[in-house]
Amino acid sequence: MPADRIRVNVDGRELELSNLDKVLYPAAGFTKGEVIDYYTRIAPVLLPHLRDRPLTRIRYPNGVEEQFFFEKNAPASTPDWVHLERLPAPGSGKGRDMLDYVVADDLPTLVWLANLAALELHTPQWRVDARHRPKPPDLMVFDLDPGAPAALPDCLRIALLLRDRLTDDGIASYPKTSGKKGMQLCCPIAGRQSADVVSAYAKRVAEELERAEPGSITSKMAKRLRPGKVFIDWSQNNAAKTTIAPYSLRAQPQPTVSTPLTWDEVESGVARQFTAADVLERVERQGDLLAPLLGGGPRVPTR
User: Fold this and answer.
1) 260: closest CA among 295, 293, 297?
2) Which residues pair with 100 in a beta bridge?
């Protein structure tokens, strides 16, 4: 075996890891071995959020400063023990353009993906059922994206407005950073309404907040409308869309992570983007702040 490859046993699965010293985050000197170590250590809180959700991966084989590619279909080298779900590609008709999606249900799969430099893990708001069919969404997500000169502190303020508005409808929301510029609010919902119904509700709420604060909020996707405002992206609830998973790394100069926040941190206005090391320490101290997302929630209002 080449010197840059090692065989390991992960929960009974044999894996070959390679190029562990390869630097994937040059500005931080963060190596592939450290990526694998992070995903291994964060797995107990990450895996429940990935379970039964088809993954879109963004791979950076030569690091975050080099070319990357999106991957939905399982690569040809996928081990036979990896959980795959054959589903229509987004935008294709039923039975056409089928893809074999990877579902990360266990630690060996997570380590295998990390070894492929799949730094970013993105999931839809729905899961796959026992009959290999998409279920209705059990999450509703609002992505808060600041248009410069607006920044994360502006998102924090808007998140509080959004939280209070959702509370009026009996919907709990849980904040996390995006690991990049902005943040998301994640809401557990009943899983008994279509993505179209959930998306329509999210749009109504975003438009309502835009009317209340037109100088600081936009619900419209056009980039020309975003400078100095926070875009409340309600369209993440479209069944074909994915959102960065909690605890996923991001391809930034530093190894930042999409990090769960407390509402106290949001209210203080001093929350920031956290690195892998920060997140491991936070989870050791706080546990999974997004555990409530796993328990279901109410139906969204339809009018």
Assistant:
1) 293
2) 86
**For residues 44 and 148, what is the distance between their CA atoms, to the nearest angstrom?**
36
- Give the SS3 label for residue 231: strand
Place of tokens 């039923």: 94
pLDDT tens track for 239-269: 999 999 999 999 999 999 999 999 999 999 9
Phi, psi angle pair for 170, to nearest 5°: 75, 20
Taking the CB of residue 85, how many other CB atoms lie within 10 A of it?
19
State percent of the chain over pLDDT 90: 92
Cα(151)–Cα(43) distance, rounded to whole angstroms? 30
d(CA 5, CA 32): 12
> Is-contact 190 296, C-beta < 8 A?
yes
In sequence order, what are the beta bridge partners of 118? 59
Confidence of residue 170 (pLDDT cuts 50, 70, 90): very high
pLDDT at residue 289, rounded to an integer: 98
CB of 89 closer than 8 Å to CB of 99: yes
Ramachandran assignment for 128, one of left (phi > 0), alpha (psi -120 to 50 degrees), beta (any other): beta
Q: Return the biggest CA–CA distance within the chain.
A: 63
Q: Which of 298, 290, 53, 293 has the alpha carbon at shortest distance from 190?
A: 298
Position 2 scores a pLDDT of 62
Average pLDDT over residues 70-79: 96
The Cα 62–Cα 51 span in angstroms is 28
Element (H, E) at 39: helix 32-50
Peptide bond before residue 149 is cis, with ω within 30 degrees of 0: yes
How far apart CA 71 and CA 202 sit, in angstroms, is 28
- Number of helices (H), then strands (E), in the chain: 6, 17
Cβ proximity of 120 and 58 under 8 Å: yes
Q: Which residues pair with 59 in a beta bridge?
A: 69, 118
pTM over 0.85: yes
